[in-house]
Amino acid sequence: MGKKNEPHLLKVLGPVHVWALGVGIVLVGQFMGWNFTIAKGGSLGSIIACWVIAILYVCLIMINTEMGSVIPEAGGQYAMAKYLLGPLAAFNIGLMLVFEYLMLEAADALVVGEILKTLSPDVQPLPYIILSLLLLTYLNYKGLHATLNLNIILTAIAFFTIIVLLFSTKFYLPSQSLINLNGLTNGLPYGAMGILGALQFGCWFFLGIEGTVLVVEECKSVGRALPVGAITGLITLIIGASITWFVSSGLVEATILGKSTYPLFDAAVVVNNPIVINLLFMGTMLACLASANGCIADASRAWYSMSRDTLIPKSFAVLHPKYNTPYRAILFLLPISLAFGLTGLLDQIITFSILSALLVYILTAYMMVKFRKMYPLGSIERGYQAKWHPVPAIIVFVLSGATLFGMYFGYWINLLAGFVFYLLASVWFVLYRSRDLDYHTFVSKGIAQWPRPKGY
């Protein structure tokens, strides 16, 4: 009876909440960051990178959703790794997830500060950044259901502003259209290598949608909420990404667009309609807030899960006695993200977030192949079944590897620093933290319900 009365994560989420989490985290990438693809690969390289990376994420969602529907634990890819790869790999994947979302949250805070400066050069953005992150942290502290209800509203309004910007250009009337792709785009100035380099920031159109699996333990029906929420979310993002490139590239000259901190807002300024400009200002702000909101939720779930499984100190695994939220993990991660955001290095922060995500994707592709070997179709109930296995896993592995290679052009120091960081973290875990690992606690939550895997 004692365990039943202990605090636990509440099953309160439905498909629309999963959609709001996935799209809410990612939509900010259509308001900022994606345009660095133009600096790396030109206008044509940018849209090619967008669609190639869309294929990567379609495949990633397929394999994530199958494994996530079978392993309904907080932590997503971390939870998959602890059953399929073991403690060291699980520790690294958990850490990568935390930093992926912390860096994205930091980028959100940075953009909020930059766009506030457009109001007046006298505006001091720091108090607003801190206040907004404190408010979102408080909402996550109180409960995920209310947090994602807010994300539904924020995300829907932000997406609506993109549609408004599209129609404000009168693209549907050739004689009156403001879109000038022929005059403002610069094609493919760096050739095929430019496309390869652009893949890195092409991820920003979709990066974070895979975080839907981090909250499966809080879904009322994982087999319904996860696939419906994640797939509709990805469709939303593909539509939004295509519109974003079309409008921005048709309104802002390529060399300016490739350096912008808030490209959609810059595009709205060109339209020269006060209503549209104010809407895009609001849309950019709301997209940043929705993204930060979701990032707090996902990063804290990964950190909480690692602590619950004894990979890091168990003090972070404590749930709030009233709200049933991982409040210690939520509060602990806030100042770390804020500190990175205040550096002002947007492309560097984005790069570390993308690097962490790509490493998770590569390991997830490997886990999918291993999962199907250990548990063939029919051996264990699945809430969703990925089609054409192992093709999606192979595509994720190849495109993630190609994107990592493309990061070498211009960001090889960041790439090296990231690998060194995770290597040192692994050494620390093996030499010190692994001594405190309770293996029974590490795997006891779900393994008892599974059949013996094939070949083991």
TrEMBL record:
<feature type="transmembrane region" description="Helical">
    <location>
        <begin position="44"/>
        <end position="63"/>
    </location>
</feature>
<dbReference type="Pfam" id="PF00324">
    <property type="entry name" value="AA_permease"/>
</dbReference>
<dbReference type="InterPro" id="IPR050367">
    <property type="entry name" value="APC_superfamily"/>
</dbReference>
<feature type="transmembrane region" description="Helical">
    <location>
        <begin position="275"/>
        <end position="304"/>
    </location>
</feature>
<feature type="transmembrane region" description="Helical">
    <location>
        <begin position="390"/>
        <end position="409"/>
    </location>
</feature>
<feature type="transmembrane region" description="Helical">
    <location>
        <begin position="349"/>
        <end position="369"/>
    </location>
</feature>
<feature type="transmembrane region" description="Helical">
    <location>
        <begin position="228"/>
        <end position="247"/>
    </location>
</feature>
<feature type="transmembrane region" description="Helical">
    <location>
        <begin position="83"/>
        <end position="104"/>
    </location>
</feature>
<dbReference type="GO" id="GO:0016020">
    <property type="term" value="C:membrane"/>
</dbReference>
<feature type="transmembrane region" description="Helical">
    <location>
        <begin position="415"/>
        <end position="432"/>
    </location>
</feature>
<dbReference type="GO" id="GO:0055085">
    <property type="term" value="P:transmembrane transport"/>
</dbReference>
<protein>
    <submittedName>
        <fullName>Amino acid permease</fullName>
    </submittedName>
</protein>
<keyword id="KW-0472">Membrane</keyword>
<feature type="transmembrane region" description="Helical">
    <location>
        <begin position="188"/>
        <end position="216"/>
    </location>
</feature>
<feature type="transmembrane region" description="Helical">
    <location>
        <begin position="148"/>
        <end position="168"/>
    </location>
</feature>
<feature type="transmembrane region" description="Helical">
    <location>
        <begin position="12"/>
        <end position="32"/>
    </location>
</feature>
<dbReference type="InterPro" id="IPR004841">
    <property type="entry name" value="AA-permease/SLC12A_dom"/>
</dbReference>
<keyword id="KW-0812">Transmembrane</keyword>
<keyword id="KW-1133">Transmembrane helix</keyword>
<feature type="domain" description="Amino acid permease/ SLC12A">
    <location>
        <begin position="24"/>
        <end position="432"/>
    </location>
</feature>
<feature type="transmembrane region" description="Helical">
    <location>
        <begin position="124"/>
        <end position="141"/>
    </location>
</feature>
<feature type="transmembrane region" description="Helical">
    <location>
        <begin position="325"/>
        <end position="343"/>
    </location>
</feature>
